[in-house]
């Protein structure tokens, strides 16, 4: 039913179209009828159109016939014309049919070509669209390929820049493609990969500069510019830029500073054996310098990775730890040469860091502390030098046999003696070898002190003061102790002591030349305010006084040794005729000893002689009164008196020049008066004059007299003096008892 309706509608539509064409044919000029006829043949109903055309022709024929009938002649004419038209129409129809056939034949290929052209045009449009899309995608793919290549070759900062361009410029243009979504999803992972890899490079860089800080510092310490050129800082710059682009600059800065602080603590931790060699200190300093050269370069080539406050904080920590380490390790050093080398190394260390803008005043302050330690090590070293000089000296005047030898000694020690110069060769200097040796070692010590003061930025006055203070310590402590040790040696002889006194006298005189020597090398006049004076004169005076005391002690010991040889027969009844052998030997020893004292200062020789005589007198008195001698005879007392007379004779002979009259004899006055009292038995005078200022036995103490008198009891029968009393022993004992009683009375009254 529906098909019928559709066919009917199509028939009506076709009929209407044919009607329209027929009207166009009827109304259109013959020359323009072609397109109209073409529209008929373009359709599929040209058969039906021909039927309609035939019908229309018949209709027109009837009308013509009617018209002819009305107008016959006109009709005949019209028929004639119509027949002609019909023939022409048939002819035209045939032509149209033929043309149509030909057109259909020829058009078939054209249609095929047109179909092919249509397909080509479609393909062309598709290809063009594809090319356009590919032109959008290719840069994305090229950028992504470039990114992967940059990642592969570890060019991370360019890779990050490529990633930024890819993300913000290229991918948005092709965001609707699936592969773009994959790329977009992969971008955070790539960023993290770049971040991780660049951080790995930074860690490698940090490890590298930790290992190479020593080399960097060594180069910088040689004052060679461009020490930082030994380091490739590009990993730091790349990582900094990458983290900055990724918005994590603060994280990077914190990480870098934290790691460098850790490295700083490691660098500042000195090895335990650093003090053993200079190389230990040098490596320690090189690492510190290398560390701060790197940080200084980072400060000036990056914007804010490190700042001045951070650098100052690190430097303060480094300064405190370095100074503490130097104080500790330098205290173990006992070699002054190593301390001096260390000082020079510290100065170089400080000067190098000062070039890079780091404050180093504390290092120079610490060098002043090390200066004191250096002085101590010098003092220890020179203590050994002085000991060797004093131990190896022969303590004999220096002999010279030629003018050359004489000038050599005078060139080593400032000595002038016109009388000695006039003497012919061979001759002797008054001092021994240790005088020029000690003098020259003092000068060497001064030079050593001067070496330490170099490059410390000290004024001449400060250098002069340092040298003088150190030299004073050398003189008053080191040299003084060495001299005192020699003087106090057990086996030292009087000859050595005498020579020491002579030597110290000349060294004392040379102190003014040492003052001049220091003035010449420091250019600071002694008259300058606050200039420290040398205490050498005091040192040598003290040594001389100690030697003098040792001479006195030594002499007394020798005297005691001789006195130990004394062998008195306290119970003898014989009267001797000569002094005891031991005493004769003792006096001979004293004479020969004092003959050696000719080069000593007069007072020293006199004091030594007086001291010896006093000690001898005191010892003889003690020998006479000692408790072990319970009894003695007048004969023993007579022998003892001969010995005392020998001593008095020695005193009168003037063994040492300079004593007035009988001054030296006064040393034996106590013995002399005691012996005279007993030998002359002059008790009446003693008892009568006792207490008087001008009494004959003023020096005899009643206690001493009583002690000796007690020893003579029960021995009177052996004394020739009491031979006349043998018949009356009781009278003799009564006399002694009476004297003893009176002596006790004197003692009691004196005590009360």
TrEMBL record:
<dbReference type="InterPro" id="IPR007225">
    <property type="entry name" value="EXOC6/Sec15"/>
</dbReference>
<feature type="domain" description="Exocyst complex subunit EXOC6/Sec15 C-terminal">
    <location>
        <begin position="362"/>
        <end position="711"/>
    </location>
</feature>
<keyword id="KW-0268">Exocytosis</keyword>
<keyword id="KW-0813">Transport</keyword>
<dbReference type="Pfam" id="PF20651">
    <property type="entry name" value="EXOC6_Sec15_N"/>
</dbReference>
<protein>
    <recommendedName>
        <fullName>Exocyst complex component</fullName>
    </recommendedName>
</protein>
<dbReference type="InterPro" id="IPR046361">
    <property type="entry name" value="EXOC6/Sec15_C"/>
</dbReference>
<comment type="similarity">
    <text>Belongs to the SEC15 family.</text>
</comment>
<keyword id="KW-0175">Coiled coil</keyword>
<feature type="domain" description="Exocyst complex component EXOC6/Sec15 N-terminal">
    <location>
        <begin position="52"/>
        <end position="221"/>
    </location>
</feature>
<dbReference type="InterPro" id="IPR048359">
    <property type="entry name" value="EXOC6_Sec15_N"/>
</dbReference>
<dbReference type="Pfam" id="PF04091">
    <property type="entry name" value="Sec15_C"/>
</dbReference>
<dbReference type="InterPro" id="IPR042044">
    <property type="entry name" value="EXOC6PINT-1/Sec15/Tip20_C_dom2"/>
</dbReference>
<comment type="function">
    <text>Component of the exocyst complex involved in the docking of exocytic vesicles with fusion sites on the plasma membrane.</text>
</comment>
<dbReference type="InterPro" id="IPR042045">
    <property type="entry name" value="EXOC6/Sec15_C_dom1"/>
</dbReference>
<feature type="coiled-coil region">
    <location>
        <begin position="82"/>
        <end position="109"/>
    </location>
</feature>
């Amino acid at each position: 039913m529906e098909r019928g309706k559709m066919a009917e509608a199509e028939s009506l539509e076709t009929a209407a179209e044919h009607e329209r064409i027929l009207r166009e044919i009827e109304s259109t000029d013959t020359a323009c009828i072609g397109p109209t006829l073409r529209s008929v043949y373009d359709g599929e109903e040209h058969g039906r159109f021909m039927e309609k055309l035939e019908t229309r022709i018949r209709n027109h024929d009837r009308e013509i016939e009617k018209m002819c009938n009305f107008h016959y002649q006109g009709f005949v004419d019209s028929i004639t014309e119509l027949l002609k038209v019909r023939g022409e129409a048939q002819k035209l129809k045939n032509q149209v049919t033929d043309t149509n056939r030909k057109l259909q034949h020829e058009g078939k290929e054209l249609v095929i070509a047109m179909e092919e052209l249509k397909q080509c045009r479609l393909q062309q449009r598709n290809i063009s669209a594809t090319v356009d899309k590919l032109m959008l995608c290719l840069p994305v793919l090229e950028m992504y390929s470039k990114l992967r290549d940059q990642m592969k070759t570890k060019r991370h900062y360019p890779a990050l820049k490529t990633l930024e361009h890819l993300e913000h410029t290229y991918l948005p243009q092709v965001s609707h493609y699936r592969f773009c979504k994959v790329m977009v999803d992969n971008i955070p992972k790539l960023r993290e990969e770049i971040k991780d890899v660049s951080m790995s490079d930074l860690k490698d860089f940090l490890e590298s500069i930790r290992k190479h800080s020593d080399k960097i510092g060594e180069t910088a310490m040689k004052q060679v510019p461009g020490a930082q050129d030994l380091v490739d800082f590009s990993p730091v710059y790349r990582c900094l830029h990458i983290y900055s682009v990724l918005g994590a600059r603060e994280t990077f800065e914190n990480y870098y500073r934290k790691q460098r602080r850790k490295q700083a603590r490691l660098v500042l931790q000195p090895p335990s054996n650093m003090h053993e060699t200079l190389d230990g200190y040098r490596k320690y300093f090189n690492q510190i310098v290398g560390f701060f050269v790197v940080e200084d370069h980072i400060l000036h080539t990056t914007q804010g990775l490190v700042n001045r406050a951070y650098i100052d904080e690190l430097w303060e920590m480094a300064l405190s730890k370095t100074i503490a380490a130097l104080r500790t390790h330098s205290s173990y050093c006992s070699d002054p040469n190593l301390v001096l080398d260390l000082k020079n190394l510290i100065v170089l260390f400080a000067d190098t860091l000062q070039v890079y803008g780091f404050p180093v005043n504390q290092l120079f302050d610490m060098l002043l502390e090390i200066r004191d330690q250096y002085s101590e090590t010098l003092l220890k070293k020179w203590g050994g030098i002085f000991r060797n000089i004093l131990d190896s000296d022969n303590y004999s005047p220096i002999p010279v046999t030629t003018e050359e030898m004489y000038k050599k000694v005078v060139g080593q020690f400032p000595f002038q003696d016109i009388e000695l110069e006039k003497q012919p060769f061979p001759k002797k200097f008054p001092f021994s070898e240790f005088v020029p040796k000690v003098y020259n070692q003092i000068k060497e010590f001064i030079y050593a002190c001067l070496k330490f003061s170099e490059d410390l930025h000290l004024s001449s006055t400060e250098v002069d003061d340092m040298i003088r203070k150190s030299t004073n310590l050398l003189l008053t402590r080191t040299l003084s102790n060495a001299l005192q040790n020699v003087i106090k040696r057990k086996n030292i002889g009087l000859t050595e002591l005498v020579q020491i006194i002579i030597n110290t006298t000349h060294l004392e005189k040379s102190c003014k030349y040492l003052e001049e020597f220091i003035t010449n090398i420091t250019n600071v006049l002694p008259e300058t305010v606050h200039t420290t004076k040398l205490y050498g004169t005091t040192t040598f005076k003290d040594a001389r006084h100690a030697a003098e005391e040792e001479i006195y002690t030594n002499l007394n010991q020798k005297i005691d040794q001789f006195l130990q040889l004394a062998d008195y027969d306290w119970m003898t009844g014989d009267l001797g005729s000569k002094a005891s052998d031991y005493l004769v030997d003792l006096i001979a020893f004293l004479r020969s000893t004092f003959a050696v004292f000719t080069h000593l200062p007069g007072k020293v020789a006199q004091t030594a002689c007086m001291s010896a005589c006093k000690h001898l007198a005191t010892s003889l008195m003690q020998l006479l009164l000692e408790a072990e001698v319970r009894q003695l005879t007048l004969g023993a007392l007579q022998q003892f008196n001969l010995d005392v007379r020998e001593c008095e004779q020695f005193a009168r002979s003037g063994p040492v020049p300079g004593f007035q009259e009988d001054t030296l004899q006064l040393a034996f006055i106590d013995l002399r008066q005691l012996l005279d009292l007993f030998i002359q038995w002059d008790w009446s005078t003693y008892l009568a004059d006792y207490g008087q200022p001008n009494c004959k036995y003023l020096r005899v103490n009643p206690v001493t007299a009583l002690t000796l008198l007690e020893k003579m009891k029960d021995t009177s029968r052996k004394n020739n003096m009491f031979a006349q009393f043998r018949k009356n022993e009781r009278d003799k004992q009564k006399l002694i008892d009476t004297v003893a009683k009176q002596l006790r009375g004197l003692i009691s009254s004196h005590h009360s």
